[in-house]
Design brief:
109 residues; elongated; 4 helices
Length: 109
């Protein structure tokens, strides 16, 4: 991964915007609009930062998952999987395979 110190001042400027956008959990388009930035320039900077190894930031691609068994009182024990995405979409699967949950989440992400 490239150090942000080795980036040009202009690329550090865009990196700061991408980091702020990621922290807010908004889309690049919505962030660019709110900040009066050209969305094309933001996407271009993201592409260049990826090529330089400066984006995505470490740890941004995976999130910790905690599985807890759920049961219905008086009924058979069932598994309930719930994934809440930053954009507010919630994926729930009861009694399914973990792979089905992950496939459904990948289609929405």
């Amino acid at each position: 991964m490239s150090s942000s110190k080795s980036l040009s001042p202009r690329m550090r400027y865009w990196l700061a915007h991408l980091q702020a956008c990621a922290q807010q959990g908004t889309s690049l388009s919505a962030y660019a609009s709110a900040q009066a930035l050209k969305v094309g320039a933001l996407y271009e900077a993201k592409s260049r930062l990826r090529k330089q190894g400066a984006w995505p930031p470490p740890g941004a691609r995976f999130m910790r998952v905690q599985a807890t068994p759920a049961s219905v009182p008086g009924g058979p024990r069932a598994s309930l999987f719930r994934i809440s995405l930053r954009n507010g979409v919630v994926v729930e699967v009861a009694g399914g395979e973990v792979s089905a949950v992950l496939e459904a989440a990948a289609r929405l992400a």
